[in-house]
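At this stage, I wrote out one protein's amino acid sequence and its backbone structure tokens, and that material follows here:
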Amino acid sequence: MALPDVIFLNGSSSAGKTSLAKALQAKLPEPYLHFGVDDLFPWLPPQWDGTAEGFQLVPLSNGEMPIVVGLEGRRVMRAWRRMLRTAADEGLKFIVDEVMITEGALDEWIGALAGLDVFFVGVRCELGEMQRREAARGDRGAGQALWQHARVHVHGPYDLEVDTTATSSEACAEAILEALAHRPRPSVFERLAQADAS
């Protein structure tokens, strides 16, 4: 089985992406690094953490909790994507754990990962279960999953979708491995890159 350079997991907060990434690392026959978007936040200086310039959670009256990404936050995200490309150029394979909610994020990823073999996975979960997990975790502002749920998958198709509502991370990882063994080409990232070039 020819493994991709990148396994790209996209889904809402508390959808189970990090647990799925760890399950994949344990099952894949080659080593994969795990880069999660949440890893960015401990890097931030105080000026960009919880501020309009960087990343700010803004509670709404309807119970949603959007994250607003300012100019410096967008700069951090662009740099993060280029850091991951550098890892790939060193011959490292990796799993991306992302929440694509900002305008243009998919196009930026397609540009950053151009020429790489990317397997694009949508990680879904029923909203009620995500809200239950969000409350149980204690490290998420209530309402993030509610706001992200309607936005994170609007960009279009995936190479594969998994649903973690009632399926374990290990079983979802097995489904990804099975799909990798029989995946059609071109991939979604390849098709989107070709469309952008035409």
